[in-house]
Amino acid sequence: MKVDVLLGLQWGDEGKGKVVDVLTPEYDVITRFQGGPNAGHTLEFDNKKFVLHNIPSGIFQGNKINVIGNGVVLDPIIFKQEIDGLREKGVDLTKSLLISKKAHLILPTHRILDAASEVSKGKTRIGSTLKGIGPTYMDKTGRNGIRVGDVLNNFEEKYAVLKEKHERLLKMYGFDYDLNEYEKGLKEGIEALREFTLIDSENELNRYLKNGKSILAEGAQGTLLDIDFGSYPYVTSSNTVCAGACIGMGIAPHKIGEVYGIFKAYCTRVGSGPFPTELFDEDGEKMRNNGYEFGSTTGRPRRCGWLDLVALKYSVMINGVTQLIMTKGDVLGCFDKIKIATAYKTGGETIEEFPYNLPDDLEPVYKELPGWNCDLTGLNSEKDLPEELKNYIRFLEDELEVPITIVSVGPDRGQTIIRKKN
Ligand code: GDP
Ligand code: IMO
Ligand code: MG
Predict the structure, then answer these.
(1) Contact of 354 with 343, CB cutoff 8 Å
(2) Which of 10, 18, 216, 300 should be mutated for ligand 1, with most atoms under 8 A from CB?
(3) In the predicted model, is pLDDT for residue 35 greater than 60?
(4) Which ligand is located closest to the Cα atom of residue 264?
């Protein structure tokens, strides 16, 4: 058996949570492999809505095993809030959620350091979700981190040592903070974690494969936020791309099967950083309002713009995408014309390859296609799709050389059209 991977091809919020939930019945195990509670994955079904941050999106469809892999950074405080919230709604995960002992812990001082770093950067701040992601991955690669497995072994001592180091750094920043409330939450969060099955997930996941179980790995963030290949330094601190799934689960590259690349029919971004096709006009406003483009984790309005094919081609290449999933075509139902950036102009030159830096003078070169100008949200079969949308899909498939096998036409689980692989 192989591991299929589903990951974002843009700047996050492509609809990963929704589609992982839709695909879950086909799998035995769902895993997260990187990122942490900077993620906000929204699922809607039976008139209910859930936003997951730490927990994989495979928890609502049968008794699947869900695994938090070693590449994830886990905040015990947010984790407990999430577990408690789900328990109140009748979902108990103590038996079905397994957590890697090698996942790193986000401590309260990581969150404070994140805030201090952003304040010190001023205008060049990343626009971080302030969940402590950067400082936690820095401690991981700097070999100072505390891992989930440590909650079973001298956690308090290890915490005291790292906290002291962090407090020295915070003094350097001259940053004011109050740890008291956070530390109470941390204690409860650590206790909550101890109730779960903490495992060497790389062994368990490889055993599942050997025993014929199917695994779907759920990415967080998106390719353009990848620490190596994204719009650096305006990125997150983990490898969001397909190779990150191998590292974040302990799975060999040849054991990766399908790579589902998910993208919106347009583009959004939260936080700072370049965004070549960003719209500052009425059209951008329409996308934000129709698509309800506000961050699932922070509530910040998302920046909106037309689809960027230069960036999308790059993402398809880096990830080796084998199937594409397009979401939110319904949001563009109010446009007469739809634009797609097929190249950039910069310094008098036209470029078609995603460049090292995205300079300020970068101007997208657009191709215009006719809009579908209708409501897609009630459609449930490929044959009902309007001709203009089929044309849009055909154009993208030709350009990207990968089939679009799923088209999502609304936030609900049921608003999903599965197309045949060409
Ligand atoms: P994720 O981070 O990739 O899981 O995406 P988010 O959940 O942060 O953001 C996607 C938003 O779009 C959520 O509010 C989803 O409920 C919603 N959504 C997903 N697919 C569609 C779709 O096809 N159409 C519309 N209108 N909304 C969608
Ligand atoms: P999901 O999984 C969209 C963005 C932040 C910021 C940058 C760095 O829901 O798609 P960080 O908190 O990681 O230090 O922030 O990355 N960002 C996301 N944007 N969706 C996400 O996750 C994101 N996670 C981080 O806004 O610009
Ligand atoms: Mg999100």
Answers:
(1) no
(2) 18
(3) yes
(4) 1
